[in-house]
Write the structure tokens for this entry.
Amino acid sequence: MKAITLWQPWASLLACGAKQYETRSWATSYRGPIAIHAAARKCNTKDLCASTVYTIIQTIRPLVADKAKTTMYLPLEMLPFGTIIATAELINCWHIVHHPGTDVDVAKHIKVGAELDVPKKHPDFHRYIVPTEQELLFGDWTPGCYAWEFANMTMLPEPIPAKGRQGLWNWEEGEMYHGEQGEVL
């Protein structure tokens, strides 16, 4: 199965359905089943504005509520790291643009959007999406980037330890990562 490694908390936001799109600086032509892997290290949230961090924490709080014995700990530290946490279908890759499509009357009312990244002769050429405010908050919708669209997201009952990689990579469902030396079991 193909897999993609994401920093936390973005991996859990995607896995729990708080976001449907993962924004990337690169496109993919792959469509099909995909595993969502939470990176072993957390992302640096100090660059995020306080309202974004607050929204992220409120969104993921239910995921860690049973683990939180006190409010001293941020839920971000309680998320799974270095594990496969969900599976889904990667169904589209959208190219992020200022004015999606060619219909000026529609496009002039859209501040940010993404059009389907398909060849001009494809029947779906000029289809577009407009992200919700939450999607804008949880991704990088800078024009020129890409929004990967997921469907049928299913969180695993228990995270499966796995060593992540950059880009799309192949994950064997029975393969587990263990130990500091990086032995694969």
User: Anything to note?
Assistant: Strands lie at 2-8, 21-24, 32-42, 83-97, 113-116, 128-129, 146-161, 168-170, 177-178, 183-184. The two ends are 17 Å apart (CA to CA). The first helix runs from residue 10 to 15. The CA atoms of residues 10 and 139 lie 8 Å apart.
